[in-house]
Amino acid sequence: MTQHSRDLSRRRLLFGGAALGAGALLVGCTSNEAAPTTAQTKGADTAAGGNSAPGKKVTIGFSAPAADHGWLAAITANAKAQAGAYSDVDFKTVEAGADAAAQRAALSTLIAQKPDVIVMLPHDGKELNAAGLEAMKAGIPVVNLDRAFPDALAYRLQIMGDNYGMGVAAANYIVAQLKAKGVSTPVIGEIPGIDSLELTQQRSKGFADTLAAAGFKVANRRPAEFTADSGQQAATGLFQALPKIDAVWNHDDDQGIGVLAAVNQTGRKEFFMVGGAGSKKAMEDIQADGTVLKATVTYSPSMASSAISLARLIGQGKGMSDLVELQVPKEIVLASETITKENASNYLKLGF
Is the pTM of this model over 0.85? Predict the structure, then answer.
């Protein structure tokens, strides 16, 4: 991880704060409903007289998939809460629908209404690339979240978690633990999320590349779908395929609930596990140290808060006050941090 990536991570709260607990809409969601806290959004510091002071009124259109997952719920909740911190922001949400086609139709309607800026988390970056291009050609800057557009002309700003870095961080923790235990030929399992998504592929590549550098490899890989039920099914299949396991990386803490259910159901506790995203429930389990889950690597939905804050600046024609440049950057990547028993208490307030 570069110093630049670490600096970006430390600036997260300047951009908009960290994760917001949102409603547990399905079994896979990891938290209860919670009001925004000062740790989860960045309040407007009007006393500073800088960028946060009220300025030109900005209408921000927003679209993200339905909150049927704890992380997605936090994305939408963070965006709404951050918009509410500014008296000069008019926040307009449009439904994303059930798939990419429905979201594109909704976005076309939004584009016709001519908001100042559009913030979106697409169902699929490749399939929604055309919607980004449509908005940008109409003179509406697009702030894209999480799922990358392949065309740089489809967005004014793209904010991403470090998916490759998540895999690197997870592998680094696993390698360090195994070497400390003197395990030279470990059996390592992997439970990714939706395999067709580029972000999943990047996570797996970072994981595989880093393991390979240490002379290790993944023995079995069972994709899930970011839900508790799919996590339980994938873990059950992994346990059946591998009679002995030393370590597992599960990409997503929501589906990790199902993984832990499979652990309890099968009694397979000879390994340790690393999670992904940084849910509050995962952090609490890590802190309590009563399960196989010993660490998680962050992929914070704080990016939605950041997106709203930066969309506002773009709409007002401003840059970031702590940078020399006069405009908001084109790309921002938030670094993935490793949460363990030793530092979980520092991160709990940021869990979604």
Answer: no
